[in-house]
Amino acid sequence: MNIALIGYGKMGKIVEEIALSRNHTIIGKVNSSNHIEDLDFSKIDVAIEFSIPQLAVKHIEYCISKNTPVVAGTTAWNDQLAYVKDIVLKANGTLLHASNFSVGVNIFSEINQRLAQLMAPQKNYEVFVEEVHHLQKLDAPSGTATSLADDILLNNESLSSWLHQENTEPITNNNQFGVVSHRKEGVPGTHSITYSSDIDTIEITHTAHSRQGFALGAVLAAEWVYNKKGIFTMKDVIKN
Q1: Is 133 considered catalytic here?
Q2: Which of 48, 60, 197, 218 is most buried, by the most CB atoms less than 10 A from its CB?
Q3: Do 103-208 and 2-97+212-239 fall under one CATH topology?
Q4: Known catalytic residue: 209?
Q5: Per-residue pLDDT tens over the stretch 82-119
């Protein structure tokens, strides 16, 4: 495929490396010097977007206006997701978005949902979400931690909300649970879900060893979504 990279920071460079290793062609790159309007969309099969939250929606809109499928990996723009979905559907376009493209993380997400279902009747356990990322991570909590926390809420009716704090576990009420973020040098990404009681502790953790898994997942997503129409997530890729 001919792939355009929208955002050419650390992630964009790793995506490029993996795409080339899978015999794809990088036909255009967008960064602070090269603008999205300068790309020749007539030659682009799929765009992979890893930029910053303030530009993500604009980039997606532009790709859709050019009838180009877009794989969106930037996080922290979900407050505009309904607006973006409306644009994609009206244009009969193609969007695959995810808070995390790692295959392992998406399997971890499925485990988290099932564990939340099993733990819902166990009122003597308290749940807690923790995430650790590198110092360059712009959003806190991470998009993945947000998704994991939201999935816990969806599968446990006794919980009404979650509360986030950086570095220290937040103080919550009986219907809330805590999400804590840490930023440390050189950590690609670690997410943990812990259920604790006076008797024992149950914990599941996903630890990324590098950004390779995120980049590979984005390329796999681009391969999967090519020639499809609609709105998809990484869950669709994993299941199919």
Answers
A1: yes
A2: 218
A3: no
A4: no
A5: 999 999 999 999 999 998 999 999 999 999 999 999 99
Q: How many CA atoms lie within 13 A of 154 on its CB side?
A: 11
- Non-local CB neighbours of 193 within 8 Å, separated by 6+ positions: 112, 115, 127, 128, 129, 148, 152, 203, 204, 205
Q: Which of 66, 133, 191, 206 is catalytic?
A: 133
Are the beta carbons of 193 and 127 closer than 8 angstroms?
yes
Please tell us whether the domain made up of 2-97+212-239 is placed in CATH 1.10.3720.10. Answer: no
pLDDT (tens digit per residue) in 29-41: 999 999 999 999 9
Three-state SS at 226: coil
Total-model pTM: 0.82
**230: β partners:** 94
- CB-CB neighbours of 94 under 10 Å: 23
Helix, strand or coil, per DSSP, at residue 20: helix
pLDDT per position as a tens digit, 133-156: 999 887 899 989 999 999 999 999
What CATH fold (topology level) applies to the domain 103-208? Dihydrodipicolinate Reductase; domain 2 (3.30.360)
Catalytic option among 29, 59, 137, 191: 137
